[in-house]
Write a structure and sequence with these properties.
7-stranded mixed β-sheet, 16 helices, 23 strands, binds 1,4-dihydronicotinamide adenine dinucleotide, binds magnesium ion
Length: 497
């Protein structure tokens, strides 16, 4: 396994990580008020990659003040929707011009394959900004015929919600920043963004492009730091009008508590344990390839990973063998190696967490058809793993593993599979593989999940809403639905008699 960092480090990136990176507050790059920095690691080697200003309560205080001022009295609110849209579009153009560099940063900081970041993470982020740039001019209210006596003109205005705190995870660092910033800016909000402590680099580089694009000072503030300090201070801050969070369900619940102080609005995109159901009448070759992609894409570090594979009994052996064969073919290595298809997990914590789940699975009787262990002697690599002999009450079937581990279970009766697929506290995504279109759409209706894929998996689009049923979250990301997270409706009623 080639896990060396390329000696020809991208020159712009080398320069970027050479000095401790500062935080962006009110249009200026600042050290932490405490003067502290924290390290971010290269997960392929476990070595320190860069030092980052460590934001905490005081920095959040300053950033919120800047965002408040930018919202309440800055030029941002006087800009036309068209001007806002053009700024967001310009940010997309700048990001696109720096695609290579961003893919490289993502690969170094998160571990994912450079080649995949270049064709997935970066272009999806660009597309999100472009899609949202278009919405800036299309956020409309309604005129409403009312039936009260007298003569009234009644209409609604959709106004930006105000100062938004955004807390994002490490699995798609740049893309999550785009999912959050794009709609908030389109709606006319101002933002304090806290990237994940494991992967702060791409958001900070994006902050430079935000300033280059010409956003007024204080509109976008970026404060890196830890969750329990900077994140918690942001979620609890009384001058923040709304908090948008993506991450674990456990922390999502903490955010809800923290938000209670000023009853700020909350949207949450949380964990999942998504069922992927293969019927015997499916195109099995594509179901096999798709089911492998469903779990192994991004090393299983996807909230919507297809981690519970259910296969109709008569084709179970063939599908499990097929997915295991796909797993064996995956080239695991450093994200910078051009051959690499799967890099390391993001951190030593995630490595230990995933290996802990594997041990729990084995001790409860699960068997690995392929994989099952840590890989390599440095870095945070785990083998792509297919577990069989699993039962519904096992930890590996119930809980989110967030690694390249799928449990495969047979089913006999198509009627039985709906309650089993829905038997989860989560409800983020689900997939069905079948050639029977009636069955596919009946399943889509009955699956309790925010996304249902039919004969495909992991298809994302800026226009397609994404989010969770049950404990997978509140609200939707992407599509025009996300704009509801960042706007509020005002009803205006005029007596025109
Ligand atoms: P996490 O939920 O702790 O971290 C996500 C973000 O929340 C980070 O920016 C972190 O700094 C922040 N945060 C943490 N504690 C906070 C607090 N008390 N107040 C405010 N912000 C806080 O997730 P973690 O620990 O990195 O990963 C643990 C598990 O969470 C993973 O194994 C996976 O199951 C799940 N997860 C789900 C994600 C998703 O996309 N839905 C993304 C990342 C993790
Ligand atoms: Mg890192």
């Amino acid at each position: 396994m080639g896990i060396a960092v390329s000696p020809q480090i991208h020159p712009q990136v080398a320069e970027f990580i050479d000095k401790p990176r500062k935080m962006l507050i009110n249009g200026r790059w600042m050290n932490a008020a405490s003067g502290k920095t924290f390290p971010t690691y290269n997960p392929a080697t476990g070595e320190v990659l860069a030092q980052i200003a460590e934001g905490d309560r005081d920095d959040i205080e300053q950033a919120v003040r800047a965002a408040r001022k930018a919202f309440d009295s800055g030029p941002w609110r006087r800009m036309t929707p068209s001007e806002r849209g053009r700024l967001i579009w310009k940010l997309a153009d700048l990001l696109e011009q720096h695609s290579e560099e961003f893919a490289y940063i993502e690969s170094l900081d998160n571990g994912k394959a450079f080649n995949i970041a270049k064709v997935a993470d970066v272009p999806l982020a660009v597309d999100m900004f472009r899609y949202m740039a278009g919405w800036a001019t299309k956020i409309e209210g309604n005129t409403i015929p009312i039936s009260s006596g007298g003569k009234f003109l009644a209409y609604t205005l959709r106004e930006p919600i105000g100062v938004v705190g955004q807390i994002i995870p490490w699995n798609f660092p740049l893309l999550m920043a785009a999912w959050k910033l794009g709609p908030a800016l389109a709606a006319g909000c101002t933002v304090v963004l806290k990237p994940a402590e494991q992967t702060p680099l791409s958001a900070l580089r994006l902050g430079e492009l935000v300033m280059e694009a010409g956003f007024p000072e204080g509109v976008v503030n970026i404060v890196p730091g830890y969750g329990e300090t900077a994140g918690a201070a942001l979620a609890a801050h009384p001058n923040v009008d709304k908090v948008a969070f993506t991450g674990s369900t456990e922390v999502g619940k903490l955010i809800v508590h923290a938000a209670a102080g000023n009853l700020k609005k909350v949207s949450l995109e949380l964990g999942g344990k998504s069922p992927n159901v293969v019927f015997k009448d499916a195109d099995l070759d594509s179901a096999i390839a798709g089911s492998a992609g469903a779990i192994f894409f991004n090393h299983g570090q996807c909230c919507c990973a297809g981690s519970r594979l259910y296969v109709e009994k008569s084709v179970y052996d063939r599908v499990v063998e097929g997915v295991a064969a796909e797993a064996k073919k995956i080239k695991v290595g450093s994200g910078l190696d051009p051959e690499t298809q799967m890099g390391p997990l993001v951190s030593v914590e995630q490595l230990n967490r995933v290996c802990g789940y594997l041990e729990a699975g084995f001790s409860e009787g699960a068997k690995a058809v392929v994989g099952g262990h840590k890989a390599g002697d440095r870095g945070y690599f785990v083998e792509p793993t297919v577990l069989v002999n699993t039962k519904e009450d096992m930890k590996v079937v119930k809980e989110e593993i967030f690694g390249p581990v799928v449990t495969a279970m047979p089913f006999t009766d198509p009627e039985e599979i709906i309650p089993r697929a829905n038997d989860s506290e989560y409800g983020l995504a689900a997939a069905v593989w079948t050639r029977d279109i009636g069955k596919a759409h009946r399943m889509a209706e009955q699956l309790r999940a925010g996304t249902v894929w039919i004969n495909c998996y992991n298809v994302f689009d800026a226009a397609l809403p994404f989010g969770g049923y049950k404990q997978s979250g509140w609200g939707r990301e992407m599509g025009h639905e996300v704009l509801h997270n960042y706007t509020q409706t005002k009803a205006v009623c005029a007596n025109i008699a």
